[in-house]
Fold each of these.
Amino acid sequence: MIYRARTVLTLDGAPIENGAVGVEAGRVVDVGRDEEVRARRSGPVTDLGEVVLLPGLINAHCHLDFTALHGRIPPQHSFADWILQINGLRRDLSDEDYLASIAAGFVEARRWGTTTIATVESMPALLDRMPAPPLRTWWFAELIDVRPRLPAAEMLDDAFARFRGKEMWPGGFGLSPHAPYTVSPGLMRLAREAAERNGNLLMVHLAESAEEMEMFRDGRGRLFELLQSLGRSMADCGQGKTPLAVMLEREVLDERWTVVHLNELTEEDFTRLERGPRFHIAHCPRSSRYFRHSPFALRRLAGLGFNIALGTDSLASNSSLSLFSEMQTLRDAHPEIAPERILEMATINPARALHQADSLGKIRVGFQADLIALPIENPRGDVVEKVIAWEKPVPWVLLAGAPFPLG
Ligand SMILES: [Zn+2]
């Protein structure tokens, strides 16, 4: 099949006017100007018309479990209060509610042109009760041991047991030790070792809120009190160490990890980051705004060479799973950043974070045929700006070479 489009935005060189993409067996087999591609290949041609054709978007961080909590928690003054609120709402959700929530999350992600998603699964046992996901999905099994029901090793065995038999699912599996305030150093280390042994990726929330900073550095505050009341050992708090310093001391981070948030960083933290390990960073612009976290240090972190990708976080702290809206929020907060860099944060950069830089995030021969088409009229030099500004459901999505109609 050959798809012809007014503009093909490959993210692998300049936009191609009157371009075409050849697709075979789920992969891109040709890309170029329409007449060149047709001269090289035979096969049916679908003319998509006055559209911009680009790679499907990739969500670097979300929690599909909480899609059903959309609009249920108004912004709180305290991050700890938000945790209490969501934990209260979660108590009323059955397994069926979670499964419906995840399914609704896929529909919502597809609606906004997302073809790949990295989601934290708080109840990995649910994986045995669902069909293969409709989008390319990396499932990160969440690990927490503030009040563990199982020993750490059993927790890990259980997660890996849920991954088994699902090797054909599009995407992959990883582990998400939730955060340094909910995961002990021992469990963090075991997770890292198991992931290394089995070739999995890792994801952790870090330096998200001012209360997390207060808890670790000063040994006080609402989050400190909450976790102390739950029985967490608070021995690593109140010694002047920032969340980043505490995490780096655990000596687990490397390029397998996506570190989510990093909103709250001190000057010393930037010095630590200069010489520390290179992990990937997921930034969730609208979730950060909802919580009123400190502004994300995009330019400084990018200047240090970190790969930064965009995520939506969950609908418990966001209004949609649209990465277009995340790009727009980022653009408004950082008007100095080139639009091309912003679009890369929802395509190429999350592909790198998922270790898929050779198969996702660009339109290139050999890459997965995950494509979206946006009916944008007359793009001139501002095609990327217009893509970022897109506000409607995405009418045309191709996933692994197969059309995926709007639900
Ligand atoms: Zn999150």
Amino acid sequence: MAVRRSGAPQPSGGIAVVGGGPAGLLAAIALARRGIPTTVFERDGDPRTSPRFDPDRSYTIDITGHGHRALQHVDATRFFDRRLLPFRGIQHAGRVVEHWREPGWTGSRGDIVRALTDAVEHTAEGRVQVHHGRRVGSVDVATGEVAWGPAGDPATTRRFGLVVGADGAGSVVRRAMQEQVPGFVVRRTELPNHLTMVELDRLSDQLDPHFLQALATRPFCVAGAIRADQDGGPPRWFCAVGTRHELRFASPDDARAWLRRHCPRVLDLASPDAVAAFARRRCYHVGQKLTCSALSAGRCVLIGDAAGPFPPIGQGVNAALESAMVLDRCLERAGATPEGCLAAAALYDRAWGPEVEAVSWISTKMLFENRLHMLRADVTMRLGLNVVGQAKDGATPWSVVAGRARRLGPLWW
Ligand SMILES: Cc1cc2nc3c(=O)[nH]c(=O)nc-3n(C[C@H](O)[C@H](O)[C@H](O)COP(=O)(O)OP(=O)(O)OC[C@H]3O[C@@H](n4cnc5c(N)ncnc54)[C@H](O)[C@@H]3O)c2cc1C
């Protein structure tokens, strides 16, 4: 992408990005490439000194077409080649059931944030300041004033030309828009979808780490690998366990009995300690879907999960990255001036709104342990109409994929 560094006046106060996750960091890289002074506030510590994965929440994440496009947009793919494993598709019992032939990666959220942090360092040339350990407590939507401090103590305030809310599913920026902007509403849908994880610490080279490994469908048990801590070491494997109801176990024996009934393969691949940790682990509700009536208001704009979290179908990080790219393209069109920023936010709203609505709709058609959804996935896969598979294609907007499915009528209601 040719980056135009504007000689025009910059947004006064620069741009604040609230949240240094995948969406926020990609936005910061893109803004830096335009020469716009950007400040990122991230409540957690520096990812380079934090653990690469959260032992209680380590699902492997695959970056496919949409995420790859966004990373190409900011010339950051090489950082992903270094930190993550190449992604090749899905296998079941040693057989490839879905081949991913385009570029893509698989890894932990920690790996993704580390790769983006490398890219910030290489591209930003001092134009991005990332403040770790700084939680934003409040935002004034009309003026762009942000209050932040360590541990949520809003000790410092400053005005920005634009505030990019990239602060995930529980977004403070979105909450400020709800509280301060008349007519801004957030619709909440709760779906029966839960997820937990068992580490497969007995697995070394039996399975190909470039593929997600489908171990069971009801419950949904899919194992994925992340790169070794040391070069040349074996990858670490984690198996996501998705269920309709929240899983709770009275003891490790209880968890072992459940696994024996539902996914015995896991017991060959996980040690007694890993099963005991699984028995204690919290099973998260991941069935929340939020839909915002708008994605921008005043001096604020929402990207990534802040704009509308949806149940996992392997597209959350991809959508987060792509939303930041779309915002950057809108800034390119509108110009990174004080007025241009506001026009860009409105353009982004119109461009990204239908996409987030579409991917969110697709995510509700593939819930864990839902017999109808599984039957439909099976039938549509045979007919070449599988929307979850098509959703990975970065060249086809989600609104197009969802539009095709909706035209098939009752099959997708
Ligand atoms: C169980 C599960 C499995 C998933 N599997 C996949 C998958 O296979 N593929 C995929 O693409 N996606 C997957 N996802 C989704 C993916 O993790 C998210 O969609 C993605 O991380 C969203 O990126 P984001 O940058 O928008 O938000 P986040 O990653 O949530 O980042 C937001 C950041 O903002 C910071 N923050 C929050 N509040 C504040 C504040 N007040 N002040 C300062 N900082 C703040 C947070 O610390 C965080 O670093 C999964 C999600 C879940 C829950």
